[in-house]
Specification:
The chain has three domains: 67 residues; 88 residues, Sandwich (Immunoglobulin-like), CATH 2.60.40.10; 250 residues, Beta Complex (Ferric Hydroxamate Uptake Protein, Chain A, domain 1). Helices cover 27% and strands 22% of the residues. It has eight helices and 18 strands. The strands form four sheets. A five-stranded mixed β-sheet has the order 2-9-8-4-5, with no helix packed on it. A five-stranded antiparallel β-sheet has the order 14-15-12-13-16, with helices on one face. A four-stranded antiparallel β-sheet has the order 1-3-7-6, with no helix packed on it. The longest helix is centred in the C-terminal third of the chain and has 41 residues.
Length: 501
């Protein structure tokens, strides 16, 4: 068979296969919507409220509207933006409750996720679990303001109320807008000795126990400086010392600074007052200099910020999940073995990794594993290494283990009586409740939130398998074409050789 004939055969084969390949590719592209949430199936719920996030996408990756129902009753989102939607479940029926999350797209294709949640009702003020909290200033080189510590969760308590209790128990206060029940905005964390009832028109949270000062000596990591110089309209590395000493918050150092928080490595698109924690949650309150782009949370701030088009969509750099390391540090502090040489060494190494804003996930996981092993097997000798974490006025009790409590054994301890927290706040303040920076105006719905979550849609795996199969088919076809072409060339060369005299 000559070359022309062979090429004709190849073209015929491709023409025959194209009608087979194209529908397969189309089916893969239109395999229906994808769903993921931060809910877990077969969970036990003690609190009457639970906040969770939903990411819904069509096959093209575009956000679509999801439908959430609790026991058949539709739930409206607490907040909905261009990336995800946040919902608050309110449980009233003890026993098993059913939550369904569904979305339709791509020609009517529908995907539904179903969760069964067992609600065990608690009394108002009853302890329903524990959460690990930390307050971090790694972006300004100041480490932990409050190192990871376990805090009880009480029925009916918002995250805003728990945050204020955390600060007061550790000798500090905050200044905020809104109220602890609605539109709470964390403007500043301040010295516990701060006297003013208001600061820049924000309300003081109350009185700290054993007041202490922040005692910060900022030194912005060199990694951040070029990013801040490129993206911020205002940047002064000495601004805190000159203008904000004792008050760390919005607009210190840059126009993009402020406080943000993440729960289980997800930056919520709702503020503290609309966030209700569950047993085992890990909450990291973090200071940002760049609208969250320096801590992995830029998407949670929104697009209603100055020069939004100049800000990086995915942050300045990749940021690893440090929840496991946070929990390991909490356990090390609470273990009572922090003075043992191997524990101290692993602990200091863990703090170094925490301070590395762009630490790789493998480095973070290795540090957590090393610290956990050291705590489980403490050496007998004491350490002479210098403690590198900032001092805290109140350390967690030695009996705290920083482990999620079993829902079957949660005690019925009443919430402790704490100093009153002003609830009326600044009612006329225009800033709405936000998890991030300070420039999101009221009633804005254009913010974006990008974060990882627990992937619960089992159909996503089928979709990936379908795509993989399509790629294999295409690869086989092209390989066949390539082999045929090579054979044709060899045949042609052979024919030329035979024709030579």
């Amino acid at each position: 068979m000559n070359i022309k004939a062979r090429l004709s055969v190849i073209l015929c084969v491709l023409l025959v296969l194209i009608p087979v390949i194209l529908p397969a590719i189309t089916a893969g592209a239109a395999s229906g919507p994808s769903l993921r949430t931060t809910l877990t199936d077969n969970a036990v719920q003690r609190g009457s409220k639970r906040t969770f996030d939903v990411w819904a996408r069509n096959a093209a990756g575009e956000k679509i509207i999801a439908t959430v129902k609790l026991n058949g009753r539709k739930i409206d989102p607490t907040w909905d933006d261009s990336e995800k939607a946040s919902y608050t479940l309110v449980f009233t029926e003890e026993g098993q409750n059913t939550v369904t999350v569904s979305a339709s797209s791509d020609g009517g294709k529908k995907k539904t996720l179903t969760y069964r949640i067992s609600y065990q009702k608690a009394k108002e003020g009853e302890k329903i679990g524990t959460a690990v909290w930390s307050v971090e200033a790694f972006t300004v080189g100041c480490g932990y303001i409050i190192a990871p510590v376990e805090m009880p969760i009480y029925e009916g308590e918002t995250s805003a109320e728990q945050l204020i209790r955390l600060l007061h128990e550790n000798g500090l206060v905050c200044y905020y807008g809104g109220t602890v029940k609605s539109s709470f905005y964390l403007a500043y964390i301040a010295d516990g000795t701060a006297a003013g009832e208001k600061y820049n028109n924000y309300m003081k949270s109350g009185t700290a126990k054993k007041p202490r000062k922040l005692n910060l000596s900022p030194s912005i990591p060199s990694l951040l400086v070029p990013y801040l110089e490129d993206t911020m309209t205002f940047f002064d590395a000495d601004d805190y010392i000159k203008n904000w000493r004792g008050y760390l918050g919005e607009f210190a150092f840059t126009n993009g600074s402020g406080w943000m928080y993440c729960v289980n490595n997800v930056f919520p698109n709702v503020g503290f007052a609309d966030s209700y924690l569950s047993d085992g949650d890990i909450v990291r309150v973090q200071f940002t200099l760049g609208y969250g782009a320096d801590i992995g949370g830029f998407g949670a701030v929104g697009t209603e910020i100055p020069d939004a088009d100049t800000q990086p969509e995915s942050g300045y750099f990749a940021v690893s999940d440090k929840d496991r390391l946070t929990l390991a540090i909490c356990r090390a502090i609470a273990s009572g073995h922090i003075d043992r040489s191997n524990v101290r060494s692993a602990y200091n190494a863990a703090l170094t990794v925490m301070a590395s804003l762009n630490a790789t996930q493998s480095a973070v996981d290795a540090a957590a594993e090393k610290l956990n092993r050291a705590v489980e097997n403490p050496s007998s000798d004491s350490s002479s290494e210098t403690k590198t974490d900032p001092p805290r006025e109140t350390d967690p009790p030695a009996t705290t283990d920083c482990s999620p409590e079993s829902s079957d054994t949660v005690s019925t301890t009443e919430a402790p009586v704490t100093e009153p927290v002003t609830s009326d706040g600044v009612s006329t303040h225009e800033k709405t409740e936000t998890s991030g920076s300070v420039t999101q105006p009221a009633d804005t719905t254009g913010s974006t939130g990008t974060a990882s979550a627990v992937i619960t849609g089992i159909d996503d795996g089928k979709e990936e398998a379908s795509k993989a199969a399509i790629y294999v088919i295409i690869a086989v076809i092209f390989a066949s074409v390539a082999v045929t072409a090579v054979l044709c060339l060899k045949k042609r060369r052979s024919d030329r050789t035979e024709r030579k005299p």
